[in-house]
Amino acid sequence: MAVLEQQLTSQQAIDLENKYGAHNYHPLPVVLNRGEGVYVWDVEGKKYYDFLSAYSAVNQGHCHPKIVDAMVSQAKTLTLTSRAFYNDILGRYEKFAAEYFNFDKLLPMNTGAEAVETALKICRKWAYEKKGIAENEAEIVVCENNFHGRTTTIISFSNDPVARKNFGPYTDGFIKIEYDNIQALQEVLENNPNVAGFLVEPIQGEAGVFVPSEGYLAKAKALCEKHNVLFIADEVQTGIARTGRLLATCGNCTCEKKDCSGTPEVKPDVLILGKALSGGAYPVSAVLANDDIMNVIGPGNHGSTFGGNPVAAAVAMAALEVVTDESLAENAFQLGELFRSELQKYAETSNVVSIVRGKGLLNAIVINDDEESETAWNICMKLKENGLLAKPTHGNIIRFAPPLVMTREQLLDCVAIITKTLKGFE
Ligand SMILES: *Cc1c(COP(=O)(O)O)cnc(C)c1O
């Protein structure tokens, strides 16, 4: 029988991954084979609410027909030319996305980590050619507990021991400061004339959904401007409507005029996108910047065989259209308020949940137990049994990030599942 036609049980699929796959993840033991909107199904046919959305890549919902149609249609026409030749769709996508996010130019890549690497390279080249920093002296400021991906350079400035240990030697040129500490940023900028950029997540997702204090990003941007330092926003997880606005930084992006629900904060000099830029259908990432910055990149300086391929371009355009057509930012904003207020009500009398936090539909609960305890994992196992998939981060934090196409009724159903499950642990 052809390999793809075999019907596997969950246990068989898990055993195969364990035996033949590298053990670089520790998944919840559920084996999915179908998704639609806010739902996924396992191989035994059990239906679940997806409350992770592939780490916020599936904001537009699983297998969104408009995105799938764009992908299939482009896949039947032309899939890859490399950038050795032009194709007739990349330019259209670049114009569409540049206007959508209000930047002059876009540099297309595939994964989030590649886009972060790209932003770091652009920043360094800008430092030497525009800011006038001496060769090899540029520094980029990053935050403690950051998550920006898994390449050797990116893990060089991580402070997660599991992500770093025995992967040295590490890349130089980064200074780490405390997140959400404007004083720390001010000091580092005043004392280091060689700082070229400040790389920041508008909300720290992987760290456990840490929302900075009101005004932090705007103040950080103002400090960067004062010291001629590029403000680089990694919105790979927070972008594309996840936090109740098109972008969590949301400067003068176009959504302001359409369905933006929050107060605009800042416009980054360099914007990094990935994950939901494709609605989870395909690996698509991008770096956006204006000409004075992006024009430091010339032929041969940077590239990617698959970056900006026709399928990626078609998929990303469709995925961004869905965000606007279906007012996903507005929906994430409304449902986020409802979700937090419902869980907050629960937390007030709970011994299990100590904190509820987040923005839009990027939320987390902190379990009243230490990081080494199994409680959060056990809660996620019970949530799975009850028909909802979520995953702990950092041991005692559970992130809740459903697709943004959820309805109010579905969300309340999910709140009922979550609170019922938590009650079993009181
Ligand atoms: C997921 C993520 C990345 C890395 O994206 P990959 O596609 O996994 O390489 C980078 N930054 C942030 C904030 C992310 O959440």
From TrEMBL:
One of its GO biological process terms is: L-proline biosynthetic process
Q: What is its EC number?
A: 2.6.1.13
InterPro entries per UniProt: Aminotrans_3, Class-III_PLP-dep_AT, Orn_aminotrans, PyrdxlP-dep_Trfase, PyrdxlP-dep_Trfase_major, PyrdxlP-dep_Trfase_small
Keywords, A to Z, come to: Aminotransferase, Pyridoxal phosphate, Transferase
Give the top-level enzyme category: transferase
Name any GO cellular component annotation: cytoplasm
Pfam name, any one: Aminotran_3
Q: What molecular function terms (GO) are annotated for this protein?
A: identical protein binding; ornithine aminotransferase activity; pyridoxal phosphate binding
Q: Which cofactor does it need?
A: pyridoxal 5'-phosphate
**Transcription found in the keyword field:** no
Q: Which pathway does it operate in? A: Amino-acid biosynthesis; L-proline biosynthesis; L-glutamate 5-semialdehyde from L-ornithine: step 1/1
Q: Does the keyword Transferase apply?
A: yes
Family indicated by similarity: Belongs to the class-III pyridoxal-phosphate-dependent aminotransferase family.
Q: What is this protein called?
A: ornithine aminotransferase
Q: Which organism is it from?
A: Kordia antarctica
